[in-house]
Amino acid sequence: MSWQVKFDDEHRVIFLYYGADISKKDIRESIVAVVEIIRDKDVRKILTDFTECLSLSLSTFDIYQLPTEYKTAGLNVSVTEAIVAPQDPKILNDIKFYETVFLNRGVRVQIFEDREKALEWLINRKSLLSILRNDRERFSRISALR
């Protein structure tokens, strides 16, 4: 097994760490584990760390099919994912394609070079969305008074 998943209760973030050599089987197993935590903990934030990755045994088609793999595993909610980029340029290109595939399917995904910046983005996303939602509600109440 070339991956590990942990749940951070304080930040309400799932951490998914990939090791040196990642197979298609590793990806499938990690997806099942992540979806299980999403359901059990009612969490929507994932930090996926590829910094240790040296090989990724997925074809372009396999990457394109990953959203379907998540649905097959039972994911039926929207998630936000921060990805910590690998050093290898070929693997980074695969991760960028992954980002594009998921963005095109409406999933919020962003690639980072630094784990701390990725975590900060995930944690602050909710705060920023809450501020925007509260402003929208406040504006609606003011408009209703006029």
- Portion in beta strands: 15-25%
Please identify, by name, the CATH architecture.
2-Layer Sandwich
Strand order of the largest sheet: 1-2-4-6-7
Distance between the termini: 61 Å
Q: Could you estimate the helical fraction of the residues in percent? A: 40-55%
Alpha-carbon Rg, integer: 17 Å
Stretches where pLDDT is under 50 for at least 5 consecutive residues are 127-131
Tally of helical runs: 5
Structural class: alpha/beta
Element-level helix/strand string: EEEHEEHHEHEH
| Mean pLDDT, all residues | 88
CATH superfamily: STAS domain
What is the top-level CATH class? Alpha Beta
Give the domain tally: 1
Q: Count the beta strands.
A: 7
Explain what the structure shows.
With 146 residues, the chain is an alpha/beta fold. The protein has one domain (3-145): STAS domain (Transcription Regulator spoIIAA, 2-Layer Sandwich). Helix content is 53%, strand content 21%. The chain is built from five helices and seven strands, in the order E-E-E-H-E-E-H-H-E-H-E-H. The protein has helices at 24-41, 60-64, 66-72, 89-104, 115-145, and strands at 3-8, 13-18, 21-22, 45-49, 55-56, 80-84, 108-112. Strands 1-2-4-6-7 form a five-stranded mixed sheet, sandwiched between helices. A two-stranded parallel ribbon has the order 3-5. It is globular, with a radius of gyration of 17 Å. It starts with a strand and ends with a helix.
